[in-house]
């Protein structure tokens, strides 16, 4: 969490910052999409619930009414990237209670670079018009529940997966990194790269990468650019694991590096 001003005028912040946060629902975008909109001072003049309350432990908490509105807005943003029919839940965090922010006439909510409305994430809030410019972030956790395959029993590393070893269950898709599996075709016959406990969700990182290219193989190379694609053939100069780079030499001696996308198939982006 960052801030430019460590002092003064905490009392003037709640109404202004609450008004700014209430506009976030117009700003939510997909993963990696810029999120920013200036909130004019006159828009902040309407009555708003206070942002911060102090509980017995002294920690700052969101006002209940504002929390409910932010929940709705964050769910709307998450649904832009969540699978259809997925159930979305949002857990709002708290601003650092040590913050002391100067009054601000113009506050801009934004999505910090590299953040998206998925899993553990943050919304940024920065002051554009005030005696002191400041920049803070509000943490939140977005849970996206959907059907995916989980281990039906404890499975050791190296297990060759059969269909009866996993079952469908509702899981938090956004809870960890890696894609989940909704169809058995993606994992049946694959080897586990690590042990799995009963009920644990199978994710792409749990499976050993398949070797699709051997050194010396003749491979099909698809070179793609803006609005065109060209196919050719060359010789693999190394091992090609799924999704990993491999060098290929064409018959004219030219060397390229491409991504292994299938059995003896390589893609080169131009």
Could you explain how this protein is built, in words?
- The protein has 270 residues and is mainly beta.
- The chain is built from two helices and 14 strands; from the N terminus they run αββαββββββββββββ.
- The strands form four sheets. Strands 3, 4, 5, 6 and 7 form a five-stranded antiparallel β-sheet that branches.
- Strand 13 and strand 14 (265-269) form a beta hairpin.
- The chain is flat and about 70 Å long.
- The two termini are 39 Å apart.
General shape = flat
Please count the helical segments: 2
List how many beta strands DSSP finds. 14
Q: What structural class do helix, strand and pairing data support? A: mainly beta
Task: Determine the fraction of residues in helical runs and give it as a percent range.
Answer: under 10%
Mean pLDDT: 76
Count of separate structural domains: 3
Series of H and E elements? HEEHEEEEEEEEEEEE
Q: Which key features would you list for this structure?
A:
mainly beta; SH3 type barrels; Type Iii Antifreeze Protein Isoform Hplc 12; 14 strands; 270 residues; 2 helices; 5-stranded mixed β-barrel
Secondary structure elements and pairings:
Layout: H1 13-21, E1 52-54, E2 60-62, H2 64-79, E3 87-92, E4 104-110, E5 119-130, E6 135-151, E7 166-172, E8 211-213, E9 218-225, E10 228-236, E11 240-241, E12 245-250, E13 255-262, E14 265-269
Parallel strand pairs: 9-14
Antiparallel strand pairs: 1-2, 3-6, 4-5, 5-6, 6-7, 8-11, 9-10, 10-12, 12-13, 13-14
